[in-house]
Amino acid sequence: MESPETIRRHLEQTRALVDAELERVLPPAEEYPPSIHKAMRYSVFAGGKRLRPTLCLEAGRLFAGEEKILLRVGSALELIHTYSLIHDDLPALDNDDLRRGKPTSHVVFGEAAAILAGDALLTLAFEAIAGAGNGASGRTLRVIHELAHAIGTIRGMVGGQVVDLETTDSTGDAARLEYIHSAKTGAFMRAALRSGTLLTAASQDDLARITAYGEKIGLAFQIADDLLDVVGTEAELGKTIGKDQQQHKATYPALHGIEASKRMAAQLADEACAALAPYGERAGILQGIARYIVGRRQ
Ligand code: FPP
Ligand code: MG
User: Measured between alpha carbons, how far is 75 from 77 in angstroms, rounded to an integer?
Assistant: First the structure.
C-alpha cells in the first residue's frame, strides 16, 4: 500500500488534471448570462479535494481505461458533488454560510442564483458525459444510468438527504443511520468508482470487487465526516463544525460514541483494502485512499 505522503501527492496531481478538465467543461464566466456562470465557477473552484474524480480515475486506471474519458466523467462527478454541496448549504436545508473555507453560494449570489447554479451544474454534468464522444457510447450510457440512479431517490443521494432532514432525533436507530449514510454519501462514491470501472473492459468480478471497496469507503468516509464535525476544527475543514450536535443530527459518534466510531471506520478501511487484495500492488493507490479517508483532517 502507498504511504500517506504518496497519496497526498497523488491527490494533488489528480486535482490539477481534474481542474484543467473542469476549465474545459464549464462555460467561461463572461458567457451570457454571466451571473449564473460566475456562480457555477465560484463553487466549483472554491477548493475541494476532488476525491470522487480521483476514485473514478483510479478505478479506471486499474483496468487500463482511457484517461481522456475517465477525466471527463471525473469532472462531471465534481460538478454533481458541487451541486449537492450548494443545495445542502441552502437556508431551507442545512443553512450554512461557510463551505470549503469560503462564504457559501447563497451568501455571495443570493438564494435564487444558488438554487439555479446547483441545477445548472447537475445538468451540465450529464451534458459533459453524453457529449464526450468516445466511440464507446454503450459504456457512457451505462455510466449515465449508474450516476443518475446513485444520486436519485431510491437508496441514492436525494433519498438519503430526505431521510436525513426528517431525522431530528440523534439517538435514532442504527439501521436508519446506516441508510442515511449509505444513501446520502456512500451511493455516489460507490458510483464514482463503478463509473470508472464501467468505462473499461473490466469483468463482472472486477466490478463486484470495486463495488465492495466503494461500499466500505463510502461508509467510512461519512463516519469520518461525522467524527470531524465533533473533533475537527473550522480552520482545517473550511466549514462550520459542531452543527450535527446543534441540529440533533443522527451521526455515528452520537449513536455509538467517538472511540467506537473510530474503530468502525478503521475496520471498514481494512475491509475495503482486503476487497482489492487480488490486484496486489496495482491497487496500492486505492488502498492508500481508503486509509487516507479515515485519517483525514479535512
Ligand atoms: C463533503 O465532501 C461532502 C459530504 C460529506 C457529502 C454530504 C452529502 C450531501 C451534502 C448530500 C446533499 C444532497 C442534496 C440532494 C442537496 P468532501 O469532504 O469530499 O468535500 P470537498 O469536495 O470540499 O473536499
Ligand atoms: Mg446536510
Answer: 5
